[in-house]
Every structure is written in C-alpha cells, then in structure tokens.
Amino acid sequence: MSAYSERIVTEFRANGGTLTTGNFARNIILVHHVGVADGVERVAPLYAQAYDEGWTVVAANSGLDEHPKWLPDFMANSGIVVEFPDDDNDVGKAVVDVSEVPDGDWDDEWAAFLDRAPGFADYQSTTERRLPILKLRRRL
Question: Which of 11, 60, 130, 135 maximizes the CB count within 10 A of its CB?
C-alpha cells in the first residue's frame, strides 16, 4: 500500500470514517480483498457513493490505461468486507458481493456517478478504456 493510502486508512479509522485529506469527507470506504495471484490480504481505500443496497465505485486507476490491480481480486472473491462511515459517525463493517454494471446500464450509472463526483470525468478522458463501474451490495 502506498504511503498516501496508508495515511487515508489511518485517518479513516482514527476519525470514525471522516477524512480531511483530499476533501473526501465521508465518501471513502475501505475494501478488504485477497489477491488472486498471491493470496495476500489487502485494504483498498476507495471513493464510493452510497445507495440503498450498498456502494458504487469506479475502477478509475487515476485514468491510467490499465485497470487497478484490485479489480480482479474484487471480481474473483465473494464476501468481501467493507469498512464504511456509519450513521453514528463511526466505522461500520459489512460483507458485500461485487458485480460490474452491465453494458446496457453503464451510461446511466456513469451519469449518476458524475453528478456527485464530476472530477471522475477527467479520469475517463485520459484513457481509451471504459472505466468499470462496480456495485458492492450488502449481504442480507
């Protein structure tokens, strides 16, 4: 994990899911995942938008031409644990299942995501790949 990501994780946990770094406020989740190639458990801090059933994240990788390294891990493993800012200004945990938004829904989901995070349009503009949009749905 990069030093920047470590700082995000530390601040997230120390402040009940609230961040001042990067003006993220309470829009970061920590996603625990196991590497497909090496079996190592990692934590990915990701910008996320909450919805009724869980969270929406975009595999932007800062607009680079390759997908983020965590994407295959998310797709290969069910029952991923997410740490999230809860309604009590604390950190909650949930088990989620991950699915990629299908092609037919991508345009609508992308527009909705950009409504709340217009900066992600810059990431899409710097790469030829279409950024995958993922739904992290809480298990009941």
Answer: 60
Chain mean position to CA 105: 19
Q: Taking the alpha carbons of 110, 113, 115, 121 in that order, is the dihedral positive or negative?
A: negative
- What's the pTM? 0.91
Q: What is the pLDDT of residue 131?
A: 97
**Alpha-carbon gap, residue 40 to 86, rounded angstroms:** 27
Domains of the chain: 3-138 (2.30.110.10)
Residue 39 CB coordination number (10 Å): 7
Q: What is the pLDDT of residues 80-98, one digit of tens each?
A: 999 999 888 889 999 999 9
Percentage of residues in the chain having pLDDT higher than 70: 100
d(Cα 60, Cα 7) in Å, to the nearest integer? 20
Q: 6, 43 in Cβ contact below 8 A?
A: no
